[in-house]
UniProtKB/TrEMBL annotation:
Residues 569-680 form the Response regulatory domain. It catalyses: ATP + protein L-histidine = ADP + protein N-phospho-L-histidine. Residues 328-545 form the Histidine kinase domain. It is an enzyme of class 2 (transferase). GO terms for molecular function: phosphorelay sensor kinase activity. Keywords: Kinase, Phosphoprotein, Transferase. The keyword Nucleotidyltransferase does not apply. The modification 4-aspartylphosphate is found at residue 619. This is histidine kinase. It comes from Trinickia dabaoshanensis. It comes from the Bacteria.
Amino acid sequence: MTTIERNACPALILAPLGRDAPVAAALLREAGTEAVICADLEHFSALLNDEIGCAVVTEEALRDADITRVAAWVRRQPEWSDFPFIVLTHRGHAADHNSGARTLIRALGNVVFLERPFHPMTFVSVVATAQRGRHRQYEARSRMEELRESEARLRIALTAGQLGQWELDLPPTHFAASEAARAVLGRTGSRTLTYADFEACLHRDDRGRMRDAIKLSMETRTDVAIEFRCIWPDGTLHWVDFRARHVLDRERKAARLVGVSSDITARKTAEANLQRMNETLEAKVSERTSQLERAHQTVLDEIRQREHAEEVLRQVQKMEMIGQLTGGVAHDFNNLLMAVMGNLELLRKQVRDEKLVRLVDGALQGARRGASLTQRLLAFARQQDLRIESIHLSRLIRGMADLLERSVGAGIELALTLPEELPLTLADANQIELALLNLVVNARDAMPDGGTISIAVEVAHATQCVDLADGDYMRVSVADTGYGMNATTLSKAMEPFFTTKGLGKGTGLGLSMVHGLALQLNGALRLESAVGLGTQAELWLPVAPEAAEVPAPVEAARDESAVVAQGVTILLVDDDALISDSTAYLLEDLGHEVIEADSGANALEVLRSGKKVDLLFTDYSMPKMTGMQLAHAARELRPGLPIVMATGYAELPAASTTDIVRLRKPYQQHQLVAEIARALRGVR
């Protein structure tokens, strides 16, 4: 018999005559759904609510009955709801031959007529279809609630940032502005603000600049970023920062600009006052004697230092903001890649046609490149998963000398200065090697005609630095004799996706990845360069505590997959259905039995039920209960339970239980084998 999907909502049954009610209830319960029998129409109306999955009603129960209350409830349904009614009739369900049916359709809306007598399988199938439709409505309700919450958060963020939101159709016609945006322009109240009103409030000397900025943006599809003066109704002048981005139509043409505006009058006033103060100061200083000139020079030096410190701070804040945005995007992209790569791996095993195999391999290669890109983005965002250990930098670089030699190629000399007597540093050896390789490759590309790359390691001390805490550091410098960078290029060199290389020759993530790694290790990346004098990159890493030791070499471990002699029962927990399905298929393909749960609460119910569970495989980032909270609760129910936790980036708390195996997304099937074996090896 057809079964109704798990977690189906209750079904109401109204069949006061004969045995229809108990028979229908028995069929539904046998199929796995809860059935509630209503004694009469009043009882039925009282039980109707949004959490009921469907209703089964006999035609005679509604014939000559007052269904006003039921019809009113149907009309009051929220926008996401279209409650399904299944009407059992002896007269067929064609509305054009049955006036009673047409009346029910008008009153109840979503009605399916099922003619009696019917086969039990037919009845259960009709109810299952109605339940699935109701489940889709619940999903729509969840999405609508998420959208409302997202819009509310956006409004809060805009209000907190004192930003006004506006939209402008292109070419400029219709202009829509939020209350905060109108307030920035000095136009409050309920009156609609047109584009003509907007232009009218601009300073007459800035109207042409605004038109030119919009025209240029339409032609080049670039963002709008302009500061202009605005005349308020009371005659006062205010400065406004105006920023926007294009929204494209179906034909990929710029349809409108969507942006934010803010009042920067205070900042402009401060800048003007500062400029006037500087001009006055310079005028007075020029009239001073030579004795006062020395004091004036000291003041200028302090101003330059302050401005430099402010510029460094602004740059750090900008990179932090970009890093947070980049990390979030990379984390979500990792989840998408997880589903793609898992399904492709399984598909690869099933395909036999050589052409299809090449196509699948090509898709897998593209997905792996995407995973590599997300790792670089996470490195820049300081959210990559690091394996911290004590490292002797000279020995590490000496061990990768052959790789560096092959990377630079002929015509470039590699000079190494690697003292042996150096303190250790705490870092991820693999990531440090990747960072050094990035710096060396950048140096190589800056010397197309050959030259020398010098790599040196030494101890350095930092005091009162903007980007470093006071203390001792290991400084790894990579210097080249290339053509160098000008000041503009140098200021942007560590920004993500910035590159001076030709199209297809660089991602612009190399230096930003090294920069993010250095910050994640409480260090810094510094660049010094001048046109014609080459470039020197310095990677500063904190010296490890004196008690730290270089880890002893680990003997080659036996094949981890051999730990699992046969399939085990795995409780798989993930709130993302795509990832859960993909991972379940990978595990089942390995011969394991999989029990799926879409939340921590459901997973705990499985553990309390006493079912056999050999290993818990859970995602970390889940709503209501995180993977780490689930792990602690699971260990309370089943001490010593092996746990593997999947994570999109380094988001686990520092005090995470050390015997929980962490698996970084996106993972492949052979990684699943290795990490599951490692988790089971800890308890077997």
